[in-house]
Amino acid sequence: MKRDEEHYTGGKKGAGSNVRYGMVIDLRRCIGCHSCSVACKTEFEVPVCRYRSWVKYVDKGEYPNVVRHFLPRLCNHCKNASCERVCPTSATYKREDGTVQIDNSKCIGCKYCMIACPYEARFINPVTSTADKCSFCVHRVDKGMVPSCVQTCIGRARIFGDINDPNSEISKYIAKNPVKVLKPATGNNPHVFYIGLEEYVESLKGGVTSIAGVDRETHVE
Amino acid sequence: MEGVVTYNVPHFFSGFHTVPWPVLIAIYLFLGGLSAGAFIASVIAGYIDREKYKNISRVGAYVAPLPVIIGTGLLILDLDRPFRAFSLFWNIHITSVMSIGAWLLLIFSILSVLYAMIFMAEGGKIRAAQPLVPYKNLIGLLGLIGAFGTAIYTGVLISAVSSIRELWSQTIPVLFTVSALSTGIAAVILFMSLSPKKDRHAITRLGWADSILIAIELGVILVWIIGMYNGTAGNKEAIRQIVNGAFGGMFWVGVVLIGLLIPLIMEYKHLKNAQGHPEAGVGAALIAALLVLVGGMILRYVVLMGGQILPLT
Fold first, then answer.
1. B99 and A89: CB-CB below 8 Å?
2. What is the value of ipTM here, to two decimals?
3. Taking CB atoms and an 8 Å limit, are B164 and A186 in contact across chains?
4. Which residues lie below 8 Å from residue B230, measured CB to CB, with a gap of 6+?
5. Residue B233 scores a pLDDT above 90
6. Which residues, 6+ apart, have CB-to-CB distance to B165 below 8 Å?
7. Which of A54, B181, B186, B195 minimizes the number of CB atoms within 10 Å of its CB?
8. B245-286: per-residue pLDDT in tens?
9. How confident is the model over B30-89, as pLDDT tens digits?
10. Taking an 8 Å Cβ-Cβ cutoff, which residues of chain B contact chain A?
11. How far apart are CA A100 and CA A93, in angstroms?
12. Residue of chain B minimizing CA distance to A56
């Protein structure tokens, strides 16, 4: 029971300069049910064809030997966030707890952050006409809850918490398991960690039957 | 069955939906560079010989203001919140190239308008601008700095995120600056050779300058391609899209052949004709200038769109 409580409160309440929120996505536990995408859409009323959180998948092989790999995606809340660096109006800013947030009242919709983001995490919200992306559900986290995608994940593939706290579940999980990040060469130092990413990356090499899932925008033609 | 990895390749008309920065931005990059190049040509021609090249100075000063103002208009049009554009001037973020560039564009636009007004006042056209005339040298110098800033900014704007878009290496600001000077001079040649009173001597000198810039640009493109092929796997894949992939035809035919090699040959023809025949026609120079402008536009389009093709994660 103690584990459950910690899991659903995200370790530490509120934000502070000694808190650094992060997320581990254990791909061994992901079954590709897309409930994270749905929970996120419901939480933020994300408009049609736009996603703050989504799942990419790769099919490999030929019937009957077919494998499908999943890769849940969201904003990586980078330490050296290139989106924050290029934002001309400081609409994108970093909170003390390391999460990258957008001040909608300042955004002019120049899309420079969309160009700069190596993770395709950003899109223009057609309702507000400003940049939008995953916020790590700070409105929930500040009240002691975990992000909606973490709450809803049926395989408990997502672990959220304070990576600066050595006793948090996420820190223990990172200590026990080898984690990797997406596109480390960009130097963005992301704080969404994956377990089992090698298998996904390997699956992209040669003989891919199809790559599907949504990017930051999909278009219904 | 071997699958085919597909890229999200933007096309001219679908560009508005599939990439963050559509063709409008490519047009701005071209027009901003053109203005800066024309302004630089105008001021530097004045520095070399104020009397001999007074037509270059005048035409350059007249060409400069409009393209950069139209380009800035296109930038504002591309914003999803265009009415907030002016907040760029007080919500300053010093690490953002665009935040600095907004000020740079504003200052250069104003200076280029003032500079053009001075030339009009000297010709007796705008009376109200007469008080500006004594400040011609100062405005020219400040504008020169602003023009170089604007030309470099068009390249830095997109290479500032080069760690992500593999194609946008540190060579791009150099390439765009050289192309800006080249297209600016081409625009001046174009207007000078279209005007009824052709200053053939000045056109010949501009033809020399443009030929040298075109040769430099060819060299920079060569260095860029070689550098990219010797870079990371991402660099290689990105440059492959440009020279051999979706934009291969556009790059080799539009940029290298139409925009650089043919103008170089036409300029050679023009300069050879002009040698010892001061009354020779300027048709070759006019065609070369037109092609340089077309090539400059295609270069911006290819680099901007090619750079936005996302590798798969």
1. yes
2. 0.85
3. yes
4. none
5. no
6. A115, B158, B238, B307, B308
7. B195
8. 778 899 999 999 999 999 999 988 888 887 777 666 778 889
9. 999 999 999 999 999 999 988 888 889 999 999 999 999 999 999 999 999 999 999 999
10. 1-3, 5-6, 8, 17-18, 20-21, 78-82, 84-85, 87-88, 91-93, 95-99, 102, 158, 160-161, 163-165, 232, 234, 308, 310, 312-313
11. 6
12. B313
